[in-house]
Recover the amino acids of this structure.
C-alpha cells in the first residue's frame, strides 16, 4: 500500500504527552491529523468514601508511581508505573496514553514495511524476526501489547470511562487479541477519560516485576502484576495480570485457580508456576518467554507469601 | 574473535583441570601479560573462585578471566607546533578529540614539562590547516602525539632560554612560568621521533607472526601510514557475575581491569577510558544486537532504544590496575588504551557465566532468552 493511501485512511490521533506519537511522527509511521488533548483532559486522582479511586486519563505515570495513597492501596499499580521506561518518560507520559499507545513491534515501527497494523495484508514478524513477539499466539499480529499499566489494571479489575462509554473492562478496551489491525477496541475518535479502581480487599498485597536484560529502561520481555490475599497460610485470593506475552494483557486464570484455597508453600507455588504457561502457543523464537513467565510467577508469589 | 578464542582457552583449562590463569602463564610468553597474570592470580576474587562445583539455587555467581591484546600503533609524520604567544604556550596539531581526552593529554604533557597547570596551555586541534596530526582510530593518537610533543618541548625550552633577556629570579619557585611570561613570541615544531631500541624480549606481535606479519606490517606502513611498534599493549580482566536462573538475567558485579599500556599520559582520563572500554565490552557481551529480518535483511534494531547499550544501573564496580612497565623504548613511554581495554571484557563475562551456571554460551549478546535456553539445553532463539 502506498504512503498516500495510508494518509488518506489515517484517522486523527490524540496526542497527550506525545511520548509515543512524537516518535511515530518523526519516523513517518503516523502521518494523519493530530488532536492535542494535553490541555483539555483530566489529571486528577479522586478517592471515594469506600476507598475506590478514579484516576484522570492525563495523570502522569510518575504521579501514579509516587502517589503515597496509591502506593498504599494499589501497590501493584504504583509499582507497575515505576517500572515503566525512564524517569523522563514517566514524568510526561500519561495513564490514558499508556493504555492507548501503539505496538512496539520492529516491523510496525518501520514506515517502509507493511504490516497488519498499517493496513497491510499479513504480519511480517510472524515469518520474520519475532524475538520479542508473543508466546500466546492469539491473533494474526504477533506483537505483544505494549501497555504495562493495562496488565496491572487487568489484575485489579479496573474499569475505563471514555467520552462515550463507561464501565469498560480492560478486555473490552483492548479486545481479545484476534484483531491484528488495532492495539485497542476504541471507536474512531473515542477518548479514554478516566480509570476507576474498586476498593481493595482486606489484607491484600501486590507486586510488579518485569523480566528484561538490563536493570531498567527496557520494554518487558515478560511482566507480571500479582495481587494476593494470604491468610492463615492459605492463598485466599490471587490475581495475576501478565504483559509482554500476548497481543493483549492476560489474566493467568489457571495458576490463579491452582493457588486459591491452597497452602501458601513452595509446592503450591511451583505448581502455579507450571500452570502459568497453560494455553501458551509460543512462536519459533519466543519459547523462552514461557520460562520467564514461570519464573516471574514463582518470584512474585514467593514474595507475596513470605 | 576474542569472545570465541578466550572461551576456548577457558574450556581447555576446564577440561585439563588446570587453573585458567596458570594455563595461560604456561604458554603465553608475552612479558606484559605475564605480569598481569601475576596480578590477576593475586586477586581475592580469583583465589576464592569455585571451580567445577555445580551450584544450585536461583542466583549463581561466577568468576571468569580473559586476556586480550592490541597493537602498539603510531603514525609517522605526526607533528605538533608549540608557540609562545603573548606570554602563553599554544600547542597546535591537526588531531581531533573524539571524547578520549586528546586535548588533556597534550595540555598535561606540556604543562608537566614546564611546571604549569594544564589550563595554562592552550591546545588547538580539530583543524586540518594545523600541522599534520594522527588519525583517531586504532589506539594510535597518544603514542603518536606524546613523543612529538616531548621533542617540541625540548626545542621550546632551548628557544626560550636562548631568547630570554635575563635568567629567572634566583629562588623563583616557578622559573618556567616566569620565563614564558617574559618571553617574546616564539614558534617551534617537531615530528614524531623513532623509538629507542626495545629491551630484550620486546617485539611487535607482527614480527612474531613471521612472513604474514611482515606483509601485514608493510601494508599498514605503506597504505595506512601506520607503524606497528615493539611491545604488546595487553589487558587481563577478571569479571564476577551473578546469574538469575529464573529470569535469565546476568549482572556483572565486579570488574577487575589489568592493563599494560605503558606510563599514563593522563592518569585520570586513562582510568576513565579503561572503565569506558569495559562498559562497551559489557554492552557487547550482554545487550548489543543488530537484529535483522531474515528474508529482506532490513535492520530492525537501528535506533538507541532497540539497539541496547548498558545503563548506569548495569555497571559493575570497576577496579583498574595499570602496570606501567613495558614501553620504556617509546619516548614518553605511553601507548593507547581504547581497543585493548575492551577486547577481553566479553569473553571474561562469558567465562564467568560458564563458571556460574556450568553452561558455556557461544553466542552474544548473553540475553535472558539465551540463558534460559542454555539452562534447558535447548537451542536459543
Amino acid at each position: 500500500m502506498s504512503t498516500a493511501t495510508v494518509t488518506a485512511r489515517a484517522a486523527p490521533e490524540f496526542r497527550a504527552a506525545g511520548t509515543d506519537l512524537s516518535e511515530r511522527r518523526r519516523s513517518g509511521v503516523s502521518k494523519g491529523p493530530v488532536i492535542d488533548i494535553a490541555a483539555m483532559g483530566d489529571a486528577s486522582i479522586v478517592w471515594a468514601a469506600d476507598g475506590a479511586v478514579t484516576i484522570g486519563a492525563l495523570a502522569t505515570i510518575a504521579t501514579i508511581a509516587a502517589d503515597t495513597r496509591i502506593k498504599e492501596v494499589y501497590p501493584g499499580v504504583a509499582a507497575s508505573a515505576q517500572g515503566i521506561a525512564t524517569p523522563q518518560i514517566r514524568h510526561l507520559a500519561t495513564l490514558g496514553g499508556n493504555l492507548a499507545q501503539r505496538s512496539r513491534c520492529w516491523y510496525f515501527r518501520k514506515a517502509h514495511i507493511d504490516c497488519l497494523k498499517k493496513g497491510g495484508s499479513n504480519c511480517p514478524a510472524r515469518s520474520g524476526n519475532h524475538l520479542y513477539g508473543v508466546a500466546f499466539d492469539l491473533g494474526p499480529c504477533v506483537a505483544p501489547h505494549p501497555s504495562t499499566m493495562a496488565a496491572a489494571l487487568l489484575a485489579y479489575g479496573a474499569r475505563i470511562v471514555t467520552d462515550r462509554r463507561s464501565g469498560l473492562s480492560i478486555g473490552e478496551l483492548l479486545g481479545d487479541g484476534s484483531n491484528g489491525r488495532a492495539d485497542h477496541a476504541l471507536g474512531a475518535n473515542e477518548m479514554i477519560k478516566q480509570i476507576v479502581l474498586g476498593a481493595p480487599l482486606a489484607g491484600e498485597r501486590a507486586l510488579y516485576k518485569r523480566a528484561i536484560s538490563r536493570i531498567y529502561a527496557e520494554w518487558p520481555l515478560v511482566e507480571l502484576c500479582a495481587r494476593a490475599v494470604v491468610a492463615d497460610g492459605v492463598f485466599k485470593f490471587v490475581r495475576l495480570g501478565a504483559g509482554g506475552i500476548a497481543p493483549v494483557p492476560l489474566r493467568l486464570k489457571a495458576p490463579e485457580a491452582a493457588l486459591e484455597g491452597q497452602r501458601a508453600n513452595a509446592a503450591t507455588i511451583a505448581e502455579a508456576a507450571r500452570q502459568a504457561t497453560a494455553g501458551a502457543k509460543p512462536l519459533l523464537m519466543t519459547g523462552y518467554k514461557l520460562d520467564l513467565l514461570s519464573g516471574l510467577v514463582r518470584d512474585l508469589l514467593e514474595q507475596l507469601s513470605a | 574473535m576474542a569472545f570465541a578464542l578466550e572461551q576456548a582457552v577457558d574450556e581447555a583449562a576446564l577440561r585439563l583441570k588446570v587453573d585458567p590463569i596458570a594455563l595461560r602463564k604456561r604458554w603465553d610468553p608475552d612479558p606484559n601479560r605475564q605480569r598481569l597474570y601475576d596480578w590477576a592470580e593475586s586477586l581475592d576474587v580469583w583465589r576464592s573462585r569455585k571451580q567445577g562445583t555445580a551450584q544450585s539455587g536461583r542466583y549463581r555467581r561466577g568468576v571468569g578471566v580473559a586476556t586480550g591484546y592490541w597493537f602498539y600503533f603510531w603514525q609517522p609524520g605526526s607533528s605538533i607546533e608549540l608557540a609562545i604567544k603573548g606570554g602563553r604556550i599554544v600547542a597546535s596539531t591537526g588531531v581531533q578529540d573524539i571524547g578520549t581526552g586528546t586535548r588533556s593529554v597534550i595540555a598535561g604533557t606540556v604543562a608537566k614539562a614546564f611546571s604549569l597547570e594544564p589550563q595554562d596551555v592552550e591546545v588547538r586541534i580539530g583543524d586540518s590547516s594545523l600541522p599534520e596530526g594522527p588519525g583517531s582510530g586504532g589506539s594510535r593518537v597518544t603514542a603518536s602525539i606524546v613523543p612529538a610533543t616531548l621533542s617540541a618541548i625540548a626545542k621550546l625550552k632551548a628557544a626560550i632560554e636562548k631568547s630570554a633577556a635575563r635568567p629567572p629570579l634566583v629562588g623563583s619557585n616557578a622559573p618556567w612560568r616566569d620565563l614564558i611570561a617574559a618571553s617574546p613570541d616564539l614558534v617551534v615544531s617537531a615530528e614524531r621521533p623513532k623509538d629507542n631500541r626495545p629491551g630484550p624480549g620486546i617485539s611487535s606481535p607482527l614480527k612474531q607472526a613471521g612472513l604474514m606479519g611482515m606483509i601485514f606490517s608493510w601494508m599498514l606502513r605503506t597504505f595506512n601510514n601506520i607503524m606497528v611498534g615493539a611491545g604488546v599493549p595487553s589487558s587481563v580482566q577478571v569479571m564476577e557475575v551473578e546469574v538469575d536462573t529464573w529470569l535469565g538475567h546476568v549482572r556483572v558485579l565486579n570488574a577487575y581491569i589489568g592493563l599494560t599500556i605503558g606510563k599514563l599520559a593522563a592518569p585520570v582520563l586513562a582510568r576513565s577510558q579503561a572503565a569506558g572500554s569495559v562498559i562497551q565490552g559489557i554492552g557487547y557481551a550482554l545487550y548489543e544486537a543488530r537484529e535483522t529480518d531474515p528474508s529482506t535483511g532490513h535492520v530492525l534494531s537501528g535506533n538507541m532504544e532497540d539497539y541496547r547499550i548498558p545503563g548506569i544501573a548495569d555497571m559493575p564496580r570497576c577496579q583498574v590496575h595499570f602496570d606501567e612497565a613495558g614501553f620504556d623504548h617509546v619516548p614518553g613511554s605511553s601507548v593507547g588504551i581504547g581497543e585493548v581495554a575492551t577486547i577481553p571484557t566479553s569473553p571474561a563475562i562469558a567465562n564467568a557465566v560458564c563458571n556460574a551456571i556450568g553452561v558455556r554460551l557461544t553466542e552474544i549478546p548473553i540475553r535472558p532468552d539465551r540463558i534460559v535456553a542454555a539452562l534447558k539445553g535447548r537451542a536459543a532463539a
